[in-house]
Design a protein that fits this description.
This protein is of the alpha/beta class and 416 residues long. It has 2 domains: 199 residues, FAD/NAD(P)-binding domain, CATH 3.50.50; 152 residues, D-Amino Acid Oxidase, Chain A, domain 2 (2-Layer Sandwich). It contains 11 helices and 18 strands. The strands form 3 sheets. Strands 1, 2, 8, 9, 10, 11, 17 and 18 form an 8-stranded mixed β-sheet that branches. The chain has an 8-stranded mixed β-sheet with strand order 5-6-4-13-14-15-12-16. Strands 3-7 form a two-stranded antiparallel ribbon. Helix 2 packs parallel to helix 7. The longest helix is centred in the first third of the chain and has 16 residues. The protein is globular. The chain binds flavin-adenine dinucleotide. Its main location: cytoplasm. GO terms for molecular function: nucleotide binding; sarcosine oxidase activity.
Length: 416
């Protein structure tokens, strides 16, 4: 089944009887060339690119819940490539380019919307830092524009410009950034992988690894033992728990991040806006809800819900930035477990166990990385060497002192 405008019109005129399920529900086979643990955005994108780009189709994605039940369906949907450091910038720019062609590539409407992101600055020092970042972005082809206060007053007149404590002096804009429908991304990759022969097996939790002579040979699951030539782990917030089953301790902490959505409003927020004097970011969904978030809850947890102190903190940040927020009613909030690394940057690498590969440490910014992460992990699994944009994301960077500390806050996961 392919999607097209013609197909939509035909179905509308014939009672919508021609739509089928987006992927099959296969029984697990005894053996696969590659088993991916985790059916989030990254696991599904890996399977898709393995099949499409590298021709490896005897692949299973094992998901303990249902597709989209993890962070891929819980995030605030922001995509961007406004990074500074050489370890990060080429990778996120590669991801941005894949986003720009994603819907044509997967033939699925993931509602990728390049509505732009504006990072506000509130002091002269912050303006200098953003200008430096903007220069790095222009060098890598990501594109950047420095906005004056007058530009901002025109684009976003509702901002609290004259707040004596946090005066808004301007912003750094990436026009190619924006949002995408998060679960639509998971569904598009799942469908594309399934069409190429990948088995997507839901309600199948990995509970252990089978090893022989220092190599992984398969996984134990709630649906039996499944043999594998190679195993790729992409379980985001559960990275520590799953890798502990292989006897490995990771430089990762799991913490809760909350998201919030208001009642539906007429279009008011022009793109994505982030507060530079506090941690607050906001956009507006196509349904009209204001979608926003802020800081981590700040303690280790595997509960997919957060606490009230952070609810208060996020809403205070929002009110300081745009007092009109106080007039909207909050519709709902939720939490997801994010895998925070010591330097705030990801890991895509082999492990010291033969044929066991790891993809994780996405912190709270891994949604935007989904296409490049899947591509780079597929490359690593298929070729056994890192993708050129992901060479820096190694396990041993902490031991070698090559941390990629984009925020410059040191080895403190809850500050990244
Ligand atoms: C509230 C919130 C807001 C965010 N906002 C943004 C944003 O605006 N922009 C951005 O770029 N990023 C954002 N992120 C981060 C982003 O969502 C994550 O970094 C990214 O989704 C993680 O990768 P994933 O999609 O593969 O994770 P997941 O969707 O969590 O996938 C991992 C999967 O592994 C499965 N799993 C776990 N254990 C096992 C097991 N033992 N066996 C089988 N399966 C298992 C889980 O059920 C899960 O489905 C946000 C995160 C949260 C929580």
């Amino acid at each position: 089944m392919t999607f097209s405008g013609f197909k939509v019109i035909k179905e509308a005129l014939t009672g919508h009887k021609g739509w089928g399920p987006l992927w099959r529900t296969p029984e697990p086979k005894a053996q696969y060339d590659v088993v991916i643990v985790g059916g989030g955005g990254h696991g599904l994108a890996t399977a898709y690119y393995l099949a499409k780009v590298y021709g490896v189709t005897n692949v299973a994605v094992l998901e303990k819940g249902w597709i989209g039940s993890g962070n891929v369906g819980r995030n605030t949907t922001i995509i961007r490539s406004n990074y500074l450091l050489p370890g990060n910038q080429p990778f996120y720019e590669f991801s941005m380019k894949l986003w720009e062609n994603l819907e044509q590539d997967t033939n699925f409407n993931s509602m990728v919307s390049q509505r732009g992101i504006i990072n506000l600055f509130h002091s002269d020092g912050q303006r200098d830092a953003y200008r430096r970042r903007g220069n790095a972005m222009m060098l890598s082809g990501a594109g950047a524009r420095l906005l004056s206060q007058a530009d901002l007053r025109e684009r976003a007149p509702f901002l609290n410009f004259d707040n004596a404590r946090f005066p808004i002096k301007g912003g750094l804009m990436q026009e190619r950034a924006g949002t995408a429908r998060h679960d639509g991304v998971a569904w598009g990759y799942a469908r594309g992988a399934d069409m190429r022969g990948v088995d997507i097996i839901q309600n199948c939790e990995v509970t252990g690894f089978r090893m022989d002579a220092g190599r992984v040979t398969g996984v134990e699951t709630t649906r039996g033992v499944i043999g594998a030539g190679k195993v790729g782990v992409a379980v985001a917030g559960n990275s520590g728990r799953v890798m502990a089953m292989a006897g490995r301790r990771l430089p990762i902490e799991s913490q809760v991040l909350q998201a919030f959505v208001s009642e539906g409003l007429k279009p008011v927020i022009p793109g994505v806006i982030t507060f530079g004097a506090g941690h607050f970011y906001i956009s507006q969904s196509d349904k009209g809800g204001l979608v926003f978030g802020g800081d981590l809850d700040g303690y280790n947890s595997y509960a997919q819900r957060g606490g009230l102190p952070v609810v208060e903190d996020v809403l205070e940040g929002g009110m300081a930035l745009m007092p009109m927020l106080g007039r909207a009613r909050l519709l709902r909030n939720w939490g997801g477990i994010v895998d925070m690394s010591m330097d705030g940057s990801p890991i895509i690498d082999r492990t010291d166990i033969g044929d066991l590969y790891f993809n994780g440490a996405w912190n709270y910014g891994g949604f935007k990385a989904t296409p490049a992460s899947g591509y780079a992990f597929a490359h690593l699994l298929a070729r056994d060497e890192p993708h050129e944009t992901a060479r820096a994301f190694r396990f041993d960077r902490f031991a070698r002192g090559y941390v990629i500390d984009e925020k410059g806050v040191g080895a403190q996961p809850n500050l990244h």
